[in-house]
Amino acid sequence: MTDSRQDSDKYLKKRAFFDSLLTIYGRKPVLEALEDLSLPVHKLHLADSNRRDQLIARMEQLASERQIEIAYWDRKGLSRISRNARQDQGVALDLALPHYGTTEAFLNEGKKGGNQKNYELLALDGITNPQNLGMIIRSACAGGMDGIILPRKGCAQIDPLVIKASTGTLFRMRLLRCEDLAPALSEFRQQGARICGLSSHAQKSLSDFGGEAPTIFVLGNETRGVSDDVARQCTHRLRIPMHNNVESLNVAVTAALISFRRQI
Amino acid sequence: MTDSRQDSDKYLKKRAFFDSLLTIYGRKPVLEALEDLSLPVHKLHLADSNRRDQLIARMEQLASERQIEIAYWDRKGLSRISRNARQDQGVALDLALPHYGTTEAFLNEGKKGGNQKNYELLALDGITNPQNLGMIIRSACAGGMDGIILPRKGCAQIDPLVIKASTGTLFRMRLLRCEDLAPALSEFRQQGARICGLSSHAQKSLSDFGGEAPTIFVLGNETRGVSDDVARQCTHRLRIPMHNNVESLNVAVTAALISFRRQI
């Protein structure tokens, strides 16, 4: 019994560690990340098939200087790690982010009573511009949001552009990954969270939205808005009132107004 | 007497019209503006010395199709219009923006009792990124600010990038030009306006800043903050309270939080 408990603890710890890894790929992004000493790097992955040019030599040198483990893989192995064979250019890098996790882990904490306070999260639906993603992270972090749900499908992923636009806040913000946004929101909803879609056509204004309960604010694509699948999960629709017939705001600005609404 | 009154009215009208002109320059920006039918164009200016290539021919064709007057100048004449001989590439274009004016005209209205209500303006100090400038205009317009003070010195100027980032709001927002920001703010101050510098080091929080009076919020450069000359004109220093040790926000986000602070 004790052995199996220990094994399971070990397994869960290991799994939590792997959940905190963010894998970036492509020669330029990986080289830039290796050169940025503020980034906590776990492991460098290289394909055997890479021509040993200056760039690869420079990566190996940086990894050795920073005492970062290097793993060599065949093309297939590498593409399993990068999850993007077409764009990885034979190179991937694991960053170990302390606040990087999954919606699943967050929901499990909730079941155990770990985050039963009235958390507020942002959820991103179709945010494809890395600059905007970085600015959303920065604003949400400064505004004190409890986390950002970032689905793998349909959104920009964390890359050096995003890291740069987040001006270092990426490593302080809780990021919750999931595969698809709609099913993840459905689970949050089943646990009692309010799911609020921001829309310029909504009747209710953000300023009239009160009460205390776990709440998720969904930010949609700037042009297309919130997608249909995600809209079906929304329990509330809210708008930000605007002057001068302006129809929409930059999505990072919207994120900031939500995050700071009780502080300014 | 009547004649001279009419002459002076005519002169002032003409001057107000010319104050509303925004001159952009450079071959690509001018061509793009001519192709954008939503932009109100007054006049196309070309240097005699231009080689008559495809680009120039296309501009002339577009101007003729849109019934826009073309003026031809020697190099010196053209550079007097563009005010940037090094970058105008022999081409300039006047846009006629309905809400584009000067701080001087705004202050004169005040003296005549025209804007004695408690206006709120943003003033830009060292905002050099066109993307940010466009986003500031968009946010301030949506948030219902009464105008934006844009000095010619030290700030990005309105160009096609800014127009694009403003997503069409540029033509609805009152823009007040001046040469240098500090002397312009000094005049506003003499007319009784409160001049508020935003700074992360300020003691007083934006949320504690109440009262009703004409107010100008100064936004400084993201890296260097508000410049010394401008800081000396400030009657108040305010900060936006931030979580997670975040030190600064994107300047367009700051503009949005100020503009929307009473509505969200």
Automatic annotation (TrEMBL), chains A, B:
> In terms of domain of life, where is this protein from?
Bacteria
Per its record, what are the GO molecular function terms? methyltransferase activity
Write the signal peptide boundaries. Answer: none
Q: Which UniProt keywords apply?
A: Methyltransferase, Transferase
Name the UniProt record assigns to this protein: TrmH family RNA methyltransferase
GO biological process, alphabetically ordered:
methylation
Q: Which organism is it from?
A: Microbulbifer taiwanensis
Report the PANTHER family cross-referenced here.
23S RRNA (GUANOSINE-2'-O-)-METHYLTRANSFERASE RLMB
> Does the record carry Lipid biosynthesis as a key word?
no
**Which residue ranges does the record assign to the RNA 2-O ribose methyltransferase substrate binding domain?**
23-101
Extract the Gene3D superfamilies matched here: 3.30.1330.30, 3.40.1280.10
SMART domains, per the entry: SpoU_sub_bind
